[in-house]
Amino acid sequence: MRGGRAMSAPVRKVIHVDMDAFYASVEQRDDPSLRGRPVVVAWKGLRSVVCAASYEARVFGIRSAMPAVRAERLCPDAVFVPPDFARYKEVSRQIRAIFARHTALVEPLSLDEAYLDVTVPLSGLASATDIAKSIRAEIRETTRLTASAGVAPNKFVAKIASDHRKPDGLFVVPPSKVEAFLAPLPVGRLPGVGRVTQGELEAMGLRTVIDLREAGREALIERFGRWGRRLHELSWGIDEHPVEPERPHTQISSEDTLENDLALDALAPHIARMAERTWAAWLRQRERDAHEGRPARRPRTVVLKLKTSDFRILTRSLTPARMPGDAAALAALAVSLRERVALPASTRYRLIGVGLANLHEPGPQVDLFEPAHDA
Question: What is the pTM of this model?
Fold first, then answer.
């Protein structure tokens, strides 16, 4: 056993496929005038954020989730294109169909990336590397887009590897090379290590993965508890999480960033607007369940999400005896959840969201969407 790992554990073959600047690349593919230019997929406006940036735009420091106004300052010549998610979803369906020809074990992370377990492939190709090459070639031929891929014995190493030769790259980390591959990487590359944890680790003198490894499990557990044990495992390349095929959503929600920060008392019409969107999304989900032969699922819980002007996120939820029967009733419940927000009246809010959570298959005794009957 090395680093707490049982060396006899079965070795998986995992591929992480990540489309290159996906939304922006779709726009450049479909509009030749955008090719070679810095493209930013975002609505313009003070409250908008960047959905994607082409590699030409990234040269200027533009990144996803950046405020659009900052992106415009960084590159005044950038071409702003409003997102077209219906088109991106259609391309994503084409890509997932390619994955399905090689394995049934596909775990989508978003429209543009996924894990694939090809330990027992459907395509009969000799190796995971050959499968990754084939997938990338099929994506290019079918969509005229490029994808990068990482091949490794587990998910987190495969994800790091896929970023190693972007764009349009393939990087393979065989089991015997995992420890050497990880050793020089900064601790911030490990999954779950955000800015705060990275700062704490660096304050301990632990800047690279090999530093983390050499610190020892007990020291990390003493400092970080159970998370310290996980950090130690990651430093040795240990990740036993399986690739999990996509499961039906357990929550349906809609959210929006307001044009201006508003007080809590002024949010009702905006909450009602999000409730209408969420209700419509739930009806579409119900239709998809029926079309795909799944039992109709019902939500148990109404959720209100708020983000304050200083980016603090609040959620309040309610599980009523009976769920609402229409969008207006959902809106009334969501609006009522404001009463559970115990912040000063001076607080202003920049984002609101309404969700239906805990979707489940109702038992024979209760249908939460059927009206009550008098005895």
Answer: 0.68
